[in-house]
Amino acid sequence: MTTLFLLGWAPMALAHGGVEDPQVLARMEGMKRLGTEMKLLSTMAKGERDFEAEKVRRAITRIEEEAGQIPVLFEPEAQDPKSEAHPSIWDEFHDFRGQAQALEEAANSLSEPIESRQALGPALVKLGVTCKECHDEYRE
Ligand code: HEC
């Protein structure tokens, strides 16, 4: 499963300590939830955890819901020294919103039940590229 290199963010330590702005914290928490769901899916895809179709379904549903919250959480132009949000988000909010929609749509397109570990890999990649595209552009 060479494509899983895309998921390299998963074990990353997150530096939230000292973030005081509640709006910044809220959007970071939202992203962290996305990270948690993707980590669950990637450990299953890699066989580090038993495959469970029901858990996969729930994770994808939560990703879709969380993706729908991204524009809401990022709309306030809140700043914090620890934030990794690129200021261009608020110059190009329309495009940023489009990137969030791409994730939401990718999750929505996976509504057919995923019944095997083999089928999980491509699904994960489909989701993961949308995370990466937005991070490449809007996360420092
Ligand atoms: C629409 C753009 C966008 C999409 C889509 C997106 N992210 Fe993010 N993500 C960001 C931005 C911007 C930040 C930096 C936020 C900050 O530090 O204020 C971030 C930060 C993060 C963080 C670090 C949060 C923290 O605690 O500091 C994680 C983890 C993360 N994203 C995971 C994901 C995963 C997993 C996906 C896909 C399932 C995803 N993101 C999709 C824009 C996006």
Keywords:
5 helices; mainly alpha; iron; Cyt_c/b562; 140 residues; 63% helix; Four Helix Bundle (Hemerythrin (Met), subunit A); binds heme C
What does this structure look like?
The structure is a single chain. Helix content is 63%, strand content 0%. It is mainly α and 140 residues long. α2 runs antiparallel to α4. The site of heme C has 27 residues, from α1, α2, α4 and α5.
Indicate the topology.
Layout: H1 22-45, H2 53-74, H3 88-91, H4 93-108, H5 117-138
Bound molecules: heme C (HEC).
Residues 9, 14, 16, 24, 27-28, 31-32, 34-35, 38, 63, 70, 83-85, 96, 99-100, 103, 127, 130-131, 134-135, 138-139 line the site of heme C.
InterPro entries: Cyt_c/b562, Cyt_c_II, Cyt_c_prime
Protein name: Cytochrome c
Keywords: Electron transport, Heme, Iron, Metal-binding, Transport
Briefly summarize what is shown.
Keywords: Electron transport, Heme, Iron, Metal-binding, Transport. This protein is mainly α.
| Ligands, deduplicated | heme C
Structural class: mainly alpha
Average pLDDT confidence is 91
Q: Give the % helix.
A: 55-70%
The CATH H-level homologous superfamily: Cytochrome c/b562
Main sheet: strands, sense, barrel: none
Which term fits the overall shape? elongated
Q: How many discrete structural domains?
A: 1
Strand content: under 5%
Round the Cα radius of gyration to an integer and report it. Answer: 15 Å
Question: How would you describe the oligomerization state of the chains in this entry?
Answer: single chain
Number of helices: 5
Quantity of strands, as a count: 0
